[in-house]
Each structure stands twice: as C-alpha cells, then as structure tokens.
Design a protein that fits this description.
With 291 residues, the chain is α/β, with parallel strands linked by helices. Helices cover 32% and strands 19% of the residues. It is built from ten helices and 13 strands. The chain has a five-stranded mixed beta sheet. InterPro entries: Solute-binding_3/MltF_N (IPR001638).
C-alpha cells in the first residue's frame, strides 16, 4: 500500500489550487514589509559532513510529483515549481553537478516503484518515513519540519499569550488525526471539540463555534492569509514539534545501495543550512512562516 505524504492532511483538497496560487503570489508584497520568519536549524553549525567524490556519477535524477503545493506543483506557466524543486536544484549546484541533474514529475502513487526500479535516483516529494519504507530505502537528514500550531479567533478575548490561555476555551481538532492525539497528550487541560473534516473545523473557527483550533501549521499558515478566513484569525503560540506524532520531517528518499549519494546529499543540505540558502528557499514559499 502506497505511503502517504508527510503531512497527514495535504493541501490537495484543502483549498482549490487556483486559490493557493493567488494567495501564494500575492503574499510576496506583504511579506516584504514584515520581519522575515526564521527557519529552525536542523544541522549543528559546528558539524562538518564529508563531501564524497561524485566524479564517477553519470547523472542524478530527482523524482517528484505535481500535487503537493507549495512543495511541488506546476505553476501558472506550466513549469515545475516549488520548495522541493528549488531545493533539488540548489543541492545539485552545491555538489557542482548541475549539468548532470534532472528533475522529473510522475504520479505520486508511482514514485516508490519508480525509485525501486532505478527509474530515478532520489525522491523529493514529501514521503512520510516509516519502518516499512526503511526496510527498502534510505533517507537523507531532514531539511524541514512541519510543526503543529494553534490558530485563534481574534474576536475571542484570551487571558494570556500561551496555550495555557486556551484551557477554558473550546479548541477544535479534526477527528482521528495525529493532531487530535497530540493535543490530548501535550495539553490535557484543553477541551477538544472534534470535527470530521478540516473544512468543518475551519468554518466553525471562523464562525466562533470554537475559539481556537489545533492542526498542521502548513495549512493553517495559508488559510489565515487567504480570503477564506475573512481575516478572522491568527496563528497562536507554538510551534510544536514531535517526532512521535508528526514524524521525522521532510527528507529525500534514496535506494539503500546509494550510500555515497545519500552522504553527498546530506553534505549539501548541511551546507545550504549553514550558508543561508535553505532559509532563502523557505522564505520564497512560506513568507508568513510556519514557526
């Protein structure tokens, strides 16, 4: 059975793709006047990962999909775009193999089999790292974590600026998700109000049927900045990270035999983290920040 993308609820189906593009491109002007949101460092600045010799590498074929905006999608001009696409190109540039790099988009459901059949060398598409996948593939170090966040209705007065202020308020979650379990584990004093879908949850928050919600920061970040929220709400407290509930983060999946290439990609990711280029890519696609 095909593994799901890293986010338990992806942006596909969360809002229309046209709306995503409208919000995404219009956000640049507004973000230029705001303080730049920071990207937590996942690599120790003192750590130096060896750069393997790739002189014998014939080519590096990245595989991705087009249904996971803002990570990988087709833009208004039909061009393959997104955070993962720009990152793949930066990795190739850092490794000085840009002339050997290719990026190909195929259906998400076909990515795992295509990598196993050597139809590509690395998958950069948001696969969730699972024990089953680790038996067949290896993964790079994570380059981005997707945290959980609260979002609050601004019309509701809160006595404080931390999650403790929500203890006497109804907080919505999507039933049966990792975020519901995480809310119960992290904040047992908060009264959870479950909803069957994310759309129902956000509609209830907008209409003040709940005072706050707890969900994926990626989706909440775009929603509060979109017309759908009618400027009702804002991100509140956090971010909250948990490998137990939210997984290991965004990684690149490779075949087990490609240990040298995996080490090279880890080296490139660490370098991009230290020199700020990973932060630059992050700001292109998350001008309002996730953290």
């Amino acid at each position: 059975m095909m593994q799901s993308k890293l986010a338990s609820l992806t942006l596909k189906g969360f809002f229309a793709f046209g709306l995503f593009l409208s919000v995404f491109f219009s956000s640049f002007a507004a973000s230029a006047q705001q303080a730049s949101p920071s990207l937590p460092l996942l690599f120790d600045a003192r750590e130096r990962l060896a750069r393997p010799d790739l002189s014998s590498l014939v080519r590096l074929r990245f595989l991705t999909s087009v249904d996971f905006p803002p990570f990988n999608f087709t833009d208004q001009n039909g061009k393959l775009s997104g955070f993962n696409i720009d990152l793949a190109r930066e990795i190739c540039s850092e490794l000085e193999i840009s002339d050997k790099c290719q990026i190909q988009a195929i259906p998400f459901a076909d990515l795992r089999d295509a990598l196993a059949a050597s139809q590509g060398d690395a998958v950069i598409a948001g696969f969730a790292v699972t024990p089953e996948l680790r038996r067949q593939f290896v993964f790079s170090r994570p380059y981005l974590m997707l945290p959980a966040r609260f979002v609050r209705n601004l019309a509701v007065p809160l006595d404080g600026k931390t999650a403790a202020a929500l203890s006497k308020h109804p907080v919505g979650v999507v039933r049966g998700t990792v975020h519901e379990a995480m809310l119960a584990a992290f904040f047992p004093a908060i009264k959870a109000e479950p909803f069957d879908t994310k759309d129902a949850l956000l509609a209830a928050l907008r209409d003040r049927k709940v005072d706050a919600a707890f969900a994926d920061a990626l989706q909440l970040s775009f929603w509060v900045s979109s017309p759908a929220s009618v400027k009702c709400c804002a991100l509140f407290d956090g971010p909250y990270l948990s490998e137990h509930f939210l997984g290991e983060g965004m990684t690149i999946m490779l075949r087990q035999k490609d240990s040298v290439l995996t080490s090279a990609i880890d080296h490139a990711l660490a370098t991009l983290s230290r020199n700020g280029r990973l932060q630059e890519i992050y700001l292109r696609y998350f001008p309002y920040g996730l953290y």
